[in-house]
Amino acid sequence: MQWGLVVAGIMLAFLVVFRLMENSMIYFPVKYPEGFWEPKEFGLPTEDCFFTAEDGVTLHGWWIGRPDARRVLLWCHGNAGNLTHRLENLVRLLDEVNVNVLIFDYRGYGRSEGRPDEPGLYRDARAAYEFLVSTKNVEPEQIVLFGRSLGGAVAVDLACRRPVAGLILEST
Fold it and tell me: Mutual orientation of helices 118-130 and 150-161 as an angle, nearest 10°?
């Protein structure tokens, strides 16, 4: 009986510690100023964007607009780092495809406020979508979601909740 209580106590302690540390074991954000925050040096004409999630968290993103592009790629990046760690990918993409891009940092990443957690990341993607529709006047049928790694789950959740033209998943 005593050993059973000891084992149960250890298991309970493990579960409590795991629950308290869960987000720090899952998410690996890199906060500003770490990263390369001068995308114009890569030839990317970015516009800093700030928008607010439904729970009041202010988020940061980059809008890369091209006057003759018909589609908008809403980029949900992977886990570690921040949006600056995707510059090389953005440069290659924009060399190949004529598309507008909104790439944003989830809560707790880059210049975005807050701390990351799963429901929060889903709210962040909805806020980025609403920014495109309401501020940039983008029609839903022009929006293609791109999710890499962690961003794949975020993009899938958004695609289930909002109308979009397409969904691209990579390493998810």
Answer: 60
